[in-house]
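Explain this record to help learners:
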Amino acid sequence: MIKLSICLSDLPKEKITTAKNGKKYINLVMWENREVDKFGNTHSIQVNKKDKDEPTIYVGNGVDKSLVPASTEPAPNINNLGDDSGLPF
């Protein structure tokens, strides 16, 4: 599962189309990033471009927890509490 976050304020109104049923749609493209970014995002989302000369409009990110590496911080060493731990044993 990939959780997405899309900034609705950044969606260009001219790219939103209305279907025959009256519902509004926008075409988006999502891809997997080469690296997980500093916020833990694994995917990026942009408005679909009809030609390559259109500006790129990024509107969100996604996180696939299965692609985020586990924390690299070492686990605390419970055997190294020292004499001031206050424990009776």
